[in-house]
Specification:
- The complex is a heterodimer.
- In chain A, helix 4 packs across helix 5.
- Chain A is mostly helical.
- Chain A is built from six helices and no strands.
- Chain B is about 40% helix and about 15% strand.
- Chain B has 20 helices and 16 strands.
- By secondary structure, chain B is of the alpha/beta class.
- Classes of the chains: A mainly alpha, B alpha/beta.
- The interface between A and B is medium-sized, with 15 and 24 residues.
């Protein structure tokens, strides 16, 4: 990879990002122009206000523009620790709870799994006994367990 | 502060209450001694205090002649918290549990129990309540069953269903007050603007908040067979507008503010308000498990008072704007304020270009009439949620605490209405609570085994 290619790749990446943002912005802008207020009766104006828009404004389709998303994200990130009760807490507090829950789950799993792992490694009988279950669970990428002890034994046997 | 009106002596034929020979107020004196016993009045307290300060009467009289009565009063009040003592003397029984968790779904049906939090009605009763927003009705049921919540916002049929073991383990639950009457609507997607006649709804997919809900029962009153004509799905209220927008459902009979929100988001229109199906129908309730009520009677009474005070305030039209403002923020309903105020004030946009004015679009009448419970039980029998014979009256009186509601209303100075089994007219058909079995059998569409 030459430096020129790296530079060009970086530029193209940037262009892709800008293109995606641009398409997003264009697709989520409220469609249609604003109609003038002049032709509306007071009741129609009140109706528009009840729909949360200034008379004549057209509502968005429900998906926020990048600008709106950026504004909301900034609002949350700039005040991450607020606490308005059990239903409305800042993003840092919510993240801390989620991570805490994950961490606790992992810790509890380790308490069971690590001793079991030692035992399986040290006892050939238990190693073979647990093997079928581990091979089945090995199919799940999240639970990968490499058969390190057997590889170590094979190397020791061949040396 | 309190005005404990004379409670009636215990009626030996009252099925709801224990027969105690002491006074019905719960204190340890005979019923006819209630008035004099309750006169641990302010005067008596003050007299005891003065007596304690001046055991020798001549000294007291000399002191009063020297400084005068008002000075003496002020001097004593400045060193002794007489006002607080007098308030404490009038207090009801001590609260067993002060820190409570009350679940709610973020809909305007629960307005009384939600607004009691920011407006301080719980604090006023000495309770430290946390109102916890819950994702759906099944979670509310589960959290009540495993006692994570002390009391909760229920759909009115839920305590009946849970007590009978329909859809969950049978656990006795009670309805303390009805939270609201009316306040729901059938909202249809914008593409169905020309299909206002229910006969054109064949093949539609409707959503309701829960099986054991007034919404489900009222929707089935439309005269369509839920097996062959329409599909009815359960969708949590907070997800109804998004599902309507995505086209997963054609309409829903759901709670406000989600009908008004669909109009606000311009994805749907309000087809009919449920008050046009059954004017004054109950919707949501405030209740708790029988176990909690028995273990914590004073706490439950305090909750009762707080929620009834809130209901009374919510019923007055002049308060509705304030209430809308107070429950709109993210920690309660999390809706734009105009959506909620359109629901509560009854002046709203209907999604078809018209502004309608229906002041009793939502009302908050707290009385849990037992005939409402009987109606719900007949519908549960009709749709096969409950099989076999149902003792309507017994179930209704066990679950719906009508007598308690009336008693607590009197306690806080409100006037409860008379009677227990009023009749109702639903879709033009009169419901007679004394003849529930005939009513159930009178429907052409039902799912009862022959």
């Amino acid at each position: 990879m030459t430096r020129a290619t790296n530079l060009k790749a970086a530029l193209v990446s940037l262009l892709i990002l800008l293109a995606v943002l641009g398409i997003w912005q264009a697709a989520t802008l409220p469609s249609g122009g604003a109609t003038s207020q002049a032709g509306m009766t007071p009741e129609q104006i009140e109706y528009q206000k009840m729909l949360g828009k200034d008379p004549g404004q057209v509502k968005s389709a429900g998906f926020p523009t990048p600008a709106e998303m950026g504004a909301t994200a900034w609002a949350h990130l700039s005040n991450p620790f607020y606490d308005n009760g059990p239903n409305d807490k800042g993003i840092a507090i919510q993240l801390a709870w989620s991570l805490g829950r994950v961490g606790l789950g992992f810790l509890l799993a380790c308490l069971v799994a690590v001793p079991l792992g030692f035992v399986i490694g040290m006892s050939p009988l238990l190693h073979k006994a647990f093997d079928p279950f581990i091979q089945v669970l090995n199919r799940w990428r999240g639970c990968r367990w490499r058969s390190t002890p057997s590889r170590i034994r094979r190397r020791a046997a061949s040396s | 502060m309190s005005r404990l009106l004379e409670p009636t002596a215990n009626d030996p034929y009252d099925a709801d209450r224990q027969l105690m020979l002491r006074c019905a107020c719960g204190q340890d004196h005979a019923p006819d001694q209630h008035a004099s016993a309750m006169a641990l009045s302010d005067d008596k307290l003050e007299a005891s205090l003065i007596k304690a300060l001046f055991p020798v009467d001549s000294v007291r009289r000399g002191f009063l002649r020297a400084v005068g009565a008002s000075t003496a009063r002020a001097a004593i009040a400045s060193v002794f918290p007489l006002g607080a003592m007098q308030a404490m003397a009038q207090e009801k029984g001590p609260l067993e549990k002060k820190d409570l968790k009350i679940g709610f779904i973020p809909i305007t049906c629960a307005t009384p129990l939600i607004m009691a939090h920011p407006l301080g009605f719980y604090k006023q009763q000495g309770l430290n309540v946390e109102v916890v927003k819950t994702a759906g009705w099944a979670l509310i049921r589960d959290k009540m069953l495993n006692k994570e919540y002390d009391a909760t916002h229920f759909l009115s049929p839920m305590p009946l269903a849970i007590s009978m073991g329909a859809g969950s383990n049978a656990t006795p639950m009670n309805v303390a007050t009805i939270q609201n009457t009316n306040g729901q609507a059938i909202t249809l997607a914008n593409k169905h603007k020309d299909k206002r006649d229910p006969k054109l709804w064949k093949g539609f997919k409707f959503a309701v908040p829960f099986e054991y809900s007034m919404h489900n029962f009222l929707l089935r009153e439309a005269g369509l067979n839920p097996d062959t004509d329409i599909q009815i799905r359960v969708v949590p209220p907070a997800e109804m507008v998004a599902n309507l927008r995505a086209g997963n459902i054609d309409g829903y009979l759901g709670p406000d503010p989600f009908n008004q929100r669909a109009v606000f988001e311009e994805v749907g229109f309000i087809h009919i308000l449920t008050k046009e199906i059954w004017n004054g129908h109950p919707c949501c309730a405030f209740g708790s498990s029988t176990e909690f009520i028995q273990k914590n009677p004073n706490t439950f009474a305090a909750l009762y008072r707080a929620v009834l005070t809130a209901s009374a305030m919510a019923r007055k039209p002049e308060n509705r704007e304030l209430i809308a403002k107070v429950i709109a923020p993210a920690q309660y309903l999390n809706q734009p304020e105009t959506v909620i105020s359109q629901v509560l004030t009854g002046r709203f946009a209907d999604g078809l270009g018209n502004i309608r004015s229906v002041p009793d679009r939502a009302d908050f009448d707290p009385i849990p009439w037992q005939s409402m419970a009987v109606w719900m039980l007949t519908q549960m029998k009709r749709w096969g949620y409950v099989k076999g014979d149902v003792d309507y009256k017994q179930m209704a009186e066990k679950v719906f605490l009508l007598t308690d509601a009336k008693k607590h209303m009197k306690e806080i100075g409100q006037t409860p209405p008379e009677g227990a089994y009023p009749r109702f007219t639903i879709m033009g058909k009169v419901f007679d609570p004394t003849k529930p079995d005939e009513y159930v059998k009178s429907f052409a569409i039902h799912k009862m085994a022959a």
